[in-house]
Design a protein that fits this description.
The protein starts with 5 loop residues before the first helix and ends with a helix. Helices cover 35% and strands 20% of the residues. A hairpin with a 7-residue loop joins strand 4 and strand 5. Helix 2 crosses helix 3. Keywords: Signal. This is DUF1995 domain-containing protein. InterPro entries: Chloroplast_ADK, DUF1995.
């Protein structure tokens, strides 16, 4: 019997090393894949996710990194495109560590609860979006190559591992034909996973690293003794893309940040999906505080009475059911 194809031999070898690496992370040290040893990439993966088909990535055309006028994306695919452009722009500016917040499509929602399955159900909605995002970023990598560099039509292999089943913390790695262009994304990182985040961040080196929808709200969430350590770790992580739905005094608004643009606030019509830019914040990395947004809306629309707030909130609930 002849030798197995090289790609099959590589996959078999890689899966064995990945299985060993799960133990290594738990033990405080990491093994390396032979194919990426010289690039310092530590293995952390066990399960390969299908990546042969992706409706968001095509072999024709070139994604344009020139942004359209400020707007809220319409639908999941539009959001992935908008996020990928922001992330790629930041990466091109040398920002390899980034925080990303995306809006998730509702799956399995009931009249009483949008997410009856909690964080695990949210993970099922988030993972496909992150896979699509990583593939879109790989496509943008190819588009950025000059005419003298070799391009490949091979889509990246997406490797996925849930590292905390209870809190649905997952790690995705996009493996490129060039190991130096591999990408790493951690879904729903929380305060308990900071040790693993440090290990992954160090092993990834200068490759792109994304923290997607972090579960902490502020550095204080890491506790009194963990705040300084967490602040030091998170300092390099730029918020390259952030979209957030807010209900302020019954008004539906969206907060958006697309690198390198400043934070922007939009009014949002839940019935039509139309959005209107109402405020551009001054430069700043931090998410604008809720009280600041309240004051902006008060100045623009006037302060609502208690009765008006109740009516507005009731109308919002009716529109979103």
């Amino acid at each position: 019997m002849g030798s197995p194809p090289m790609h099959l031999k590589h996959a078999t070898q890689f899966l064995w090393v990945l299985a060993m690496s799960v133990f290594s992370l738990a033990s405080g040290f990491a093994l390396t894949s032979s194919s990426r040893l010289e690039h310092g990439w530590h293995c952390f993966e066990l399960r390969m996710t299908e990546s042969n088909a992706d409706p968001d990535v095509t072999s024709e055309g070139r994604d344009n990194l020139v942004f359209s006028p400020p707007r809220i994306p319409r639908g999941t695919e539009d959001q992935v495109l908008q996020a990928s452009q922001s992330i790629q722009r930041a990466f091109n500016d040398g920002i390899t560590r980034q925080q990303v917040k995306i809006e998730l499509p509702l799956i399995g929602a009931t009249e009483l609860d949008d997410w009856p399955g909690g964080i695990k159900q949210q993970y099922q909605a988030c993972e496909p979006m992150v896979i699509s995002l990583l593939k879109k970023l790989a496509k943008l990598d190819e588009d950025d190559l000059n005419e003298n560099e070799q391009k490949t039509t091979t889509q990246p292999q997406i490797l996925s591992q849930v590292i905390d089943a209870d809190d649905a913390v997952g790690v995705l790695q996009a493996q490129s034909s060039d190991p130096k262009k591999d990408k790493l994304a951690v879904i729903f990182p929380n305060t308990e996973s900071i040790k693993v985040l440090k290990q992954l961040s160090e092993s990834a080196g200068n490759r792109l690293k994304l923290l997607v929808n972090p579960q902490w709200k502020r550095v204080a969430d890491f506790g009194f003794f963990g705040q300084q350590d967490a602040k030091k770790f998170l300092e390099p992580y730029e918020r390259s893309y952030h979209i957030q739905s807010l209900l302020v005094y019954g008004r539906s608004v969206r907060l958006l940040r697309r690198y390198p643009d400043p934070w922007q606030l939009f009014s949002f019509d839940e019935k039509t999906g139309d959005s209107t830019l109402i405020h551009v914040f001054q430069e700043g990395k931090d998410v604008p505080e809720y009280k600041v947004i309240e004051d902006i809306l008060d100045r623009k629309y006037g302060r609502m009475s208690v009765a008006e707030r109740i009516q507005q909130s009731t109308d919002f609930i009716k529109d979103t059911l």
